[in-house]
Amino acid sequence: MIFQHRTGTGFDDYKKVDHPGEHASSLQKVQQFDLCVEFGATGRDNMTLFYKTVIPVILIFLIIAVFSQVSYSKPIETPVGSKAPLIFGRLDCTLCNVLVSGIDALLKQDKTDAEIDQFVVSTCINLKIEQPHVCRHIVTEFADELYFVIERSVLSPREVCGLFVPDCVTAGNPFNQTWPIEIPPNKPAVQSWPTPAPGKPTLRVLHLTDLHADPDYAVGTEADCSNHELINTYAFCCREFTDDKTGKYKVDGRDSSIKTPAGKWGSIAKCDIPYRTLEATFEHIAKDAGKLDYIMLTGDLEPHAIWDYTKETTTTIINNINGLLDKHFPGIPIIQSLGNHEGVPMDAMAPRSIPEYETRGPQWLYTELNKAWSKWLPASTSETINYRASYSFMLYDKLKIISLNSVYCSSYNFYLYINATDPDDTLQWLSSELLSAEKAGQKVHIISHIPTGDAYCLQAWANNYYKLVNRFEGTIMAQFYGHTHFDHFYMYFDEFDPSSRPTGVAIVGPSVTTYSHVNPAYKIYTIDGDYDGSSFTMIDEDTYWANITRANEEDKVTYELEYNRKAAFNMPDLSPASFHDLLMRLTTDDTLLDKYITYYHRNDATLKTCDKTCRKKFICAAMTGESRAEKTFCKNL
After folding, report:
1. For the residues 9-32, what does the mean pLDDT come to?
2. Span 302-328, average pLDDT
3. Gyration radius (Cα) of the chain, Å
4. Contacts of 344 by beta carbon, 8 Å cutoff, 6+ apart
5. 483 is in an annotated binding site
6. What confidence score (pLDDT) does residue 122 get?
7. Which of 38, 53, 461, 475 is most buried (most C-beta within 10 Å)?
8. Strand 538-546 vs strand 502-508: parallel, antiparallel, or unpaired?
9. What are phi and psi of 7, to 5 degrees?
10. 449 is annotated as contributing to ligand binding
11. Across-strand partners of 401?
12. pLDDT tens column, 516-562
């Protein structure tokens, strides 16, 4: 159903012009909103029924869109390879268009932010979308950014919705159009993947990601948050969620006893881990993991309570966790990348091209990160960290580390909808860094947070990054990411053709947090070592996990080897060609795919309900190193 506006007031003045009946339930829900909420006297008496009932709900849906990106449910309910928000899996294209059109019109009527905020909070509470505390604070957190962007965005409503609802994507969507960066010509001849000689020195490298330690985790609180009609469940559990007036835990507005108490060491639920579990993890690694040459941490330190983010709390968390790292791993280089949850609000990292950068930009954050990271980095990195939160340096004579701020590709970094063209020239900077390494005969490892194969990443950025991977396939020896919380990988292919030669692999590390419904895990890589002629390729990969259910039963956190990549999947090496061969075997070997899916989630619950279509999605996700390009990469599956 597509709505066409006519002169008049309210929903009765919209006529159905296409696809009759297709979205009746969505329209019914919107029509009912005015029955649930009392608007009150706020000086909008001249506003039409449409604006009174629908416009403020737009903000609710946009905020829920941001909010529910942290609330992806049990593993099998998650779009494979994506942290796309749940709410837009249920919001159809028509409803989204109506909502976004409305808020744009309201802003053009010069309605005050305070007026909109007041009604949005009331609507959120009365519809029981979230706990009252969350409703109030989520509006405070995101409203200003959303108002600012929508007033200045060049997008049409359909294009805005196309960012979140696949059915709304149009050929004219500017975020599906690649903006150019300069790709250096004269690519060297492709060489065979190097095979390190036996007995050569090696490096042992720890990969941590998505720590999400929650200082407000409360043992004994509800781990299985109450069901709600609109977004199924509250997005975050294991906290003292209470009704603001009575102070009692609520389920659908009723007092409730705890059904599933949060465990001392964590819960396999929509919960982050308590700090004690993070410190126990660091203690275990420091004691039992053996010699480490360096550590990679690919972002996301803050808990998922995105409604409570402030500059002060984020700064405290950054300093606390970096202090823990320094305490448990003295003398070991720690190389970090920025996560989207470091933003305040989440993902809000405006490039310098936007208006009011001095007050809206993330300079405060980049300054704090620069201070926190400086103990492990050379002074030469300071300028680029302060400018774009990316940096490069020579870890060894022939190994360059590049830490890339991929929050500049986040589809929830709303400032990009004002101008998304290579924010702060970051990909052009990456191209220059890769070219200088190529000319010097150096090898490169890239660490970053949001992988380019994930739908969270804007396609234009992902497409340009993919081009750089192909151009510099002889220089980029490894790519390490986080963000999804799952254990998987993405492939890159020559000419963007999955039937051609593989050019690269991005390893996505499993999260230390249990959010959502996963056990904590980390990886240790064996890398070709620092010697003359080293390839600095990945030689081996081990993944360790902790069974949180058992930890609560035994009152201690114990990590053990979950699997070795080469042994588990019968891989001769960890070259792009070997990963591609694994991918092809997954298409025909159901037992092998079962193993991959089990390791992906750190449990086997998914296998019970994963049908043929579901299983194909796991393979498609690994094949797609460019976000939102499944039709290109998976057409022959």
Report:
1. 33
2. 96
3. 24
4. 309, 310, 311, 314, 365
5. yes
6. 76
7. 461
8. unpaired
9. -65, 135
10. yes
11. 393, 445
12. 899 999 999 999 999 999 999 999 999 999 999 999 999 999 999 99
DSSP 457: B
Under CATH, what is the fold of the domain 202-215+268-633? Answer: Purple Acid Phosphatase; chain A, domain 2 (3.60.21)
Using DSSP, state whether 146 is helix, strand or coil: helix
CA distance 342 to 311: 9
Residue 613 and residue 630 in contact, taking contact as beta carbons nearer than 8 Å: no
Q: Which of 168-172, 234-238, 348-352, 462-466 has the lowest mean pLDDT?
A: 168-172
**485: annotated binding-site residue?**
yes
For 113, the token pair is 């932010």
What the block records as the tokens of 377 is 């980095």
Please name the residue that has the structure tokens 């201070």: 371
Q: How does the average pLDDT of the chain come out, rounded?
A: 82
**Would you call 367 exposed, middle or buried from its count of C-beta atoms within 10 A (0-12, 13-18, 19+)?**
middle
pLDDT for the residue 15: 30
Cα 95 from chain centroid (whole Å): 25
Spatial CA neighbour of 538 closest among 445, 436, 401: 445
The CA distances from residue 356 to 107, 148, 350, 369, 370, in Å, are 18, 10, 10, 22, 23
Question: What are the tokens at 160?
Answer: 């805005």
Q: What is the pTM of this model?
A: 0.85
DSSP code string of 178-205: PPP----S-PPPP-PPP-PPTT--EEEE
DSSP sequence for 509-525: PPPSS-TTT---EEEEE
Six-digit token pair at 254?
């009723």
Residue 539 C-beta-side C-alpha neighbours within 13 Å: 18
182-209 tens-digit pLDDT: 999 999 999 999 999 999 999 999 999 9
Higher pLDDT, 149 or 232: 149
> Is 210 annotated to bind ligand?
yes
Structure tokens at 521: 């895990």
**Does 322 appear as a known binding residue?**
no
Question: Angle at the Cα of 234 (from 481 to 135), degrees rounded to 5?
Answer: 100
- How many CB atoms lie under 10 A from the CB of residue 568? 16
23 is in an annotated binding site: no
387 contacts 424 by C-beta, under 8 angstroms: yes
Q: Is 212 annotated as a binding residue?
A: yes
**Does the structure show a pLDDT above 70 at 494?**
yes
Token look-up 């505390």 returns 133
Residue whose entry in the numeric block shows the structure tokens 């949060």? 262
Portion of the chain with pLDDT greater than 70, in percent: 74
Q: Which of 137, 497, 441 is nearest to 310 (CA)?
A: 137
Going from N- to C-terminal start, the domains of the chain cover 3-175, 202-215+268-633
| Over residues 448-476, mean pLDDT | 97
